Amino acid sequence: MADSAAPAPQDAEALLEYSWGRRGAPLPRRERLVEAVLTVALLAACLALLHATSLTAAVDLAIIPVLAAYAASIRVVFPVGAGFTTPSQLFLIPLFALAPAPVVPLLVVAGLLIARLVDVTLARTRMDRLVVCGGNAIYTLGPALVLTFAGRHDSLAAPVALLLAAFAAQLLFDLVSGVMREWLASGVRPELQLRVQAQVWAVDAALTPLGLLAAYAGVRIPGASVALWPLVMLLGHMARDRERRIARAHERLQALERERARLRVAVHRIGDAFASNLDLDALLQIVTRACVDALDADAGRASVDRGGRRIARVQVSEDAGMGRAMETAERAAVDRGELVSIGEDGDWVLSAPLGAGLASEAAVTVARRGEPFAEQERELFAHLCAQASVSAANVDRHHTLHRQAITDELTGLANHRRLQEVLSHSVEAHERTGAAASLVLFDLDNFKRVNDTHGHQTGDMVLRAVAQCLCAAAGPADEVARYGGEELAIVLPDTGLDRAHRVADEMRARIEALSLRTPDEAPLLVTVSGGVATLGSGAPTSTALIAAADEALYEAKAAGKNRICMAAPRVHAKPVAAGSGAIGEGPGASRADGADELRRAIDNDELELHYQPKVTLPDGRAVGVEALLRWHHPERGLLRPPAFLELLVHEEVGPALTRWVLRRALTQAVAWRRDGLALPVAVNVTGRDLADPDFPAAVARCIAETGAVAGDLRLEITEQTVITSGDRARAALEEIRAMGVGVSLDDFGTGHSSLTRLRHLPVDELKLDRGFLRSTDVDADLAIIRAAISLGRDLGLTVVAEGIEDARQWHLLSTIGCDLAQGFFMAPALRPAELERWLAGRRSRPAA
Predict the structure, then answer these.
(1) How far is C-alpha 151 from the geometric centre of its chain's CA atoms?
(2) Which helix (H) or strand (E) holds 306?
(3) CA pair distance 364, 333, nearest whole angstrom
(4) Secondary structure in 3-state letters for 593-648
(5) Tens digits of per-residue pLDDT, 439-456?
(6) Helix 160-186 to helix 141-149 angle, to the nearest 10 degrees?
(7) Tens digit of pLDDT for each residue in 24-55?
(8) Which of 67, 387, 477, 670 could serve as a FRET partner for 124 with CA atoms 20 to 30 Å apart?
(9) What is the mean pLDDT of residues 502-520?
(10) How far apart are CA 241 and CA 590, in angstroms?
């Protein structure tokens, strides 16, 4: 029953903290409603009592000072156990002695209103607190009903048994109203509220005899009841002093809780760094952020030494005025090899070197203005930096071991294991998005003769020279590997068969032009033969791709060596099933034929978009969709991207298809927005799109022509595309981001991005590759996911996890703070109408 904005307290200490923290805060809507109902019920009961009673005696004017004293006593609030009490019982009994019983509840309401108005005037409470006056006066209905029905309007003349019954009725009404109010308004359990009420009753029982004495004195001596004013003033002074002490203790507790929260964040960050395989920038980012949070610093930075100059690699809320002091502390810390603390012009700085592994020349520095760092804070900073040094050493060792595990010792190239990893990633990307990838296998011609004639050392020299030549000719995203013996391989991402053949032939020519000599200084001619194959229906797996490239290499050898051959398309012995096989492959088919088919498909409206939702964690609210292309082929049925998207790398149909997808996706987003659904649509784009100088303008035209707004669109680019396209892609993305279009970095974690590159990319969303989720039972892999999420948040990026396939992954990502999720566990890619039905069903039931 608790208000959704704040969980109900579950024990006495939490109830006291909850009540204390609500002082001065606006009343929640539910509580205002409950109090209003109680006030109406009280007034109705009082009117009924007055109507049922014939009152002949006038109200004694001596009641005015007593009422004022009651109002003053209400403002004296004493914390008692888990609740609060007031000495109002001292003046409640005199009110019953001086006024008819049915009138007393109304007088109490008036006294409460007077007290609250005084507090409002003194800015000690809010005006909306006036509504609680009726509920606070309900307890007076008990004795009023008992005395009225007993016919005793003069309470002092009543027998002791009746007075005890009246007091019991007061406690009963107090119990029922208090329990019901707190349960309905705040969700406090009745048994917990009963404990609070018992403490309040003990105070009321202790004050009741004094109240009776004051009532008897007031009847015999006019105004004698106010003789208790000095006692009330003393209690008020004590209450205010105790309130100030509790307020200071409460502030200290809150400060300690904030400190604990900062330390928890720091420990989590350092733990992530300790367990994760991060580059130096990522490690420094985590450590610096952790130190700034843990020490409540105003600024922080991490720097490395490059040629005798300190280069800042990470900056966290750096204040320009503190820069000089931070640089001075960094130099001193690195020179001395120990923690340094300095203070200049009110700026207090701590700096410490990270003296191990990757961070041997790095230093972390934090600073704040006004308050110097305490000894405990310096010790904590030193401890965090020491842990970071250990983490750096671990990362360094991990990188060294990993590099040794995937590197060929002779040539320095990737080895067979690494080649298989790269091919597996390429196959996964091809199956998911249709991204093209080609493999070139090179074999040194007559290499056995070189070894036999000139010795194995010369053969090793030739292998190293060819490897260096291939590396120099390869692009930044290409992977050069030693496949085995004298065979070398190159994986070319986002490259189709024709371009891969051209690249391979250029490399062959470079190798042939190498100027090598034998041990006796005779010229040594080196040539290679090569085979080229690309992923597709003929080679859908890494094994099939290697077999196809090896077959083409064999043909090149058989044709005379020193040449490059392409893998021939596989001929299907059986009819092609609907939806299988790539367009442009098969007997008599050409890639140009496939491109023509795709152009006709655009003209004949054979294409459609399906949409897969992205939802928030953990509540499962849909906040966007990704558009995925489908082709209703007249002969092969529904085709997914892997069957045709490899054509787009080479053919002019690519830009036309991208613009078709943009227009169709934006048109659908506008239609949804008109129906009240805010669902920005993400569209995948390629490196070829970003290389087109007209692409940003084309995006702007599509937005304008469809009546969309920039926020309706998000572009997704793969990490590999950014690496391959370089500055051209970055310039195009910056122009598109300036329009207000969102940009997502897709498949993050499969490429070679460092934090430095990521920090400068014009992206606002990070999509973790689904491969991260396949082994979340392993602690190291889970730590990598947590670190990636932490890094994304530190850079101000929304983090999306792709490929959520079960409830375990969903709850895991919710627990570690991932922002959004996408995958078959929520929904597959759906047609627009299906997606709308899914959304409607989602709103009618709890989130996953």
Answers:
(1) 68
(2) strand 299-306
(3) 9
(4) HHHHHHHHHHHCCCEEEEEEEEEECCCCCEEEEEEEEEEEECCCEEECHHHCHHHH
(5) 999 999 988 888 888 888
(6) 140
(7) 667 778 888 888 888 888 888 888 888 877 66
(8) 67
(9) 92
(10) 91
Q: Which two tokens stand for residue 814?
A: 């919710």
Identify the three-state secondary structure at position 828.
coil
Left, alpha or beta for 544 (phi > 0: left; psi -120 to 50: alpha)? alpha
The Cα–Cα gap between 29 and 53 comes to 37
Joined together, the tokens standing for residue 826 give 């929520």
As a whole number of angstroms, the distance between CA 141 and CA 131 comes to 18
Strand partners, 418: none
For residue 596, name the pLDDT band (cuts at 50, 70, 90). confident
Instruction: Considering only residues 574 and 283, tell me which one the structure prediction assigns the higher pLDDT.
Output: 283
Look-up of token digits 């948040």: 793
Contact 342, 367 (CB under 8 A): no
Where is 342: in which H helix or E strand? strand 340-344
pLDDT score at 272: 60
Q: Measured between alpha carbons, how far is 145 from 154 in angstroms, rounded to an integer?
A: 13
Residue 774 predicted with pLDDT over 80: no
* pTM > 0.70: no
Q: Which of 408, 403, 413, 519 is nearest to 461 (CA)?
A: 519
Which residues, at least 6 apart from 464, have a Cβ–Cβ distance to it below 8 Å?
410, 411, 412
Which are the contacts of 520, defined by CB distance < 8 A and separation ≥ 6? none
- Which tokens in the block code for residue 138? 């309900």
- Stated as kind and residue range, the H or E segment containing 160 is helix 160-186
723-741, pLDDT tens digit by residue? 666 677 788 899 999 999 9
Q: What's the one-letter identity of residue 399? A: H
Would you give the DSSP letter of residue 79?
Answer: E
Q: What are phi and psi of 667, to 5 degrees?
A: -60, -40
Gap between the Cα atoms of 407 and 410, Å rounded: 9
Distance between CA atoms of residues 742 and 729, nearest Å: 15
DSSP code of residue 130: G
Nearest to 545 by CA among 600, 490, 503: 490
Assess contact for 694 and 728: CB atoms under 8 A.
Answer: no
- Rounded to a whole number of angstroms, the CA Rg of the chain reads 39
The tokens of 287 are what? Answer: 């450590």
Beta strands in 479-548 (DSSP E): 479-484, 487-493, 516-517, 523-524, 528-534
